[in-house]
Amino acid sequence: MANNDFQFHSPVAPLIERLIQEKQAVGYKYQAGTEALARLDRFLASEGLAQCELPRPMVRKWLMKQSHESARNHQVRASTVRQLATFMLKNGCSADVPGPYLTAKGDNSFSPRIFTRVEIQRLIHAADQFEPSGHAPLRHLVMPEVFRLLYGCGFRLSEVLHLKVSDVDLDRGVLTVRETKFGKDRQIPPAVALVQRLQQFAAKFGRRPAGAYFFPTLHGGPWAMTTVYHNYRQLLLRSGIPHGGRARGPRVHDLRHTFAVHRLLRWYREGADLNAKLPVLAAYLGHQSVEGTQHYLHLTAELFPEIAVRSNTAFGDVIPRRVAS
User: Fold this and answer.
1) Which residues span the domain enclosing 220?
2) Which of 16-20, 81-85, 199-203 is most confident?
3) In this predicted model, which residue has the larger pLDDT, 66 or 255?
4) Are residues 159 and 69 both part of a single domain?
5) Of 13, 45, 64, 242, which cross-links 8 as Cys (Cβ 3.0–4.6 Å)?
6) In a 10 Å sphere around its CB, with 0-12 CB exposed, 13-18 middle and 19+ buried, how is residue 9 labelled?
């Protein structure tokens, strides 16, 4: 249950826990929703909420768009609050249900930032220079390995943060991602050098329960994605990589895109048949189908135009043409 991982303390806490339980009971993982509700709970407590209600002024203040937040993430956060408010009304509590006009419209034209290998080296080097802080005394241990996994294996951030000790088989060198975005488990074999680093990381914590988080906070719970994002912004600054501002990236998720493009580029330079390799990449990334992975062929071709020409000559139209909208 998600409320084993998060503690809720505001007057709304009992209803938050019931909402999470109901979501999970019907089959939803509800990880992102639980994390958003935990942040909302902390906000309500800090605002001095005295009874089980969701007043409009607090809802409006909570829904103010953050400077680093994308339009999509803002909409997801608002949707979570909307679900809680509706749930509270059904249970006889006063709650303001925010309308859709309070969130910005998403921009579907966003193009991911594909880092160069030199930029990746600078980012990883900067992560290795992290020191423990008062708020994050384990940061210097956790962040270097988290960012190596994001780029080295193309993980989604939530997948890395929710790895349990039982999911990390360091003898076989295999990581198991449980109930991913599309509800399926998958096994990922990292490079040998990365497995060796994870072995050294695990040794620093000694023997731990199978259900413990592999990358724990000081209190044993999972790291919040927002905390990782703030560390990521520090890495960009220290690496001399500019950030475009609000919702313009580079995003943490762009490390996953970079992994996919770099992998395709390496296969291409090795002379591999990209048409045959695409299902392998799809399985590794946890995509439902090859169609979801073809996007990376477009990105690779746009960055390295000679690939489209030479690949199509050898294998036919491996890289599908974009359809005009």
Assistant:
1) 117-239
2) 199-203
3) 255
4) no
5) 13
6) exposed
Contact 96, 54 (CB under 8 A): yes
In which element (H, E) is residue 177 found? strand 174-177
Tell whether 190 and 221 lie within a shared domain: yes
Amino acid at 120: I
Contact 178, 283 (CB under 8 A): no
Q: Is there a domain that residue 80 lies in? A: yes
Q: Which two tokens stand for residue 91?
A: 């249970």
Query: Global pTM?
Result: 0.64
110 pLDDT band (50/70/90 cuts)? low
In a domain, residue 111? The reply is no
pLDDT of 308: 54
Question: Are residue 121 and residue 227 in the same domain, yes or no?
Answer: yes
Cβ–Cβ under 8 Å, residues 152 and 222: no
For residue range 124-137, list pLDDT tens digits in order. 999 999 999 888 89
